[in-house]
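> forwarded from #structure-qc
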């Protein structure tokens, strides 16, 4: 049995992970960690009390990096679903994971449909020289752009040197009107509004045609097969993985 700890267990995603782990035949939930009425309030408290094979983190952007450093330095395998890590922080975690020979899986999105959306966008990128991303989330999401949007931009950026091919010289009359300018001039636009949960559109354009690749999540259950897949992978492997696509058979 895989002994699983969940950090951020009382959050909306954490509660879903608790239910899914409890329903899995090959896992046992040994620690629910949360600063708000958790079984344990810190990872250290949990580590000192129970054996942890894999820790799943769905906390906050301002705490995930320190959580990950603690886990990897203490040989606790990790599955990270919290977004907001910078490229530099991800590089540091990759380095530490390899040095400690301790598994660390970071997934900007655990929905298998979202992973396929990113894969399809990567496939399309070589056929278009113009692309933009619109990501839409509920208004309680703290980081922008989303980790999924950043990962998508990174994946498709290899298809062209610039994704604003043929655009005129632009001037923003209001700062941010064109969104964030990511890899190879891929513009990312973030929407935060009640009514959404998590959606993303990748727009490709060329003369005479537009290709739109869109994915919508309507509830948090859609992430759970990916989370369980990540736990099983981390439990039986060592090293660093960024993106659920790396362990899916696609």
């Amino acid at each position: 049995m895989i002994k699983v700890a969940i950090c951020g267990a009382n959050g909306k995603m954490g509660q879903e992970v608790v239910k899914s782990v409890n329903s899995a035949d090959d896992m046992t939930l040994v620690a629910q960690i949360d600063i708000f009425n958790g079984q344990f309030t810190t990872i250290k408290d949990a580590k000192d009390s129970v054996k942890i094979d894999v820790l799943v983190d769905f906390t906050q952007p301002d705490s995930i990096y320190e959580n990950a450093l603690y886990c990897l330095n203490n040989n606790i395998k990790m599955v990270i679903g919290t977004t907001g890590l910078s490229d530099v922080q991800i590089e540091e975690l990759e380095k530490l994971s390899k040095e400690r020979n301790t598994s660390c899986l970071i997934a900007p999105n655990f929905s298998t449909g979202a992973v396929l959306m990113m894969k399809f966008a990567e496939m399309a990128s070589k056929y278009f020289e113009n692309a933009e991303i619109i990501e839409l989330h509920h208004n309680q999401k703290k980081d922008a752009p989303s980790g999924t949007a950043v990962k998508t931009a990174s994946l498709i950026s290899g298809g062209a040197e610039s994704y604003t091919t043929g655009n005129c010289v632009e001037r923003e009359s209001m700062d941010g009107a064109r969104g964030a300018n990511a890899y190879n001039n891929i513009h990312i636009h973030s929407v935060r509004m009640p009514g959404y949960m998590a959606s993303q559109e990748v727009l490709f354009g060329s003369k005479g045609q537009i290709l739109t690749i869109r994915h919508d999540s309507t509830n948090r259950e859609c992430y759970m097969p990916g989370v369980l897949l990540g736990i099983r992978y981390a439990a039986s492997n060592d090293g660093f993985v960024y993106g659920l696509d790396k362990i899916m058979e696609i």
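QC bot note: The chain has a mean pLDDT of 95. Residues 7 and 33 are 5 Å apart (CA to CA).
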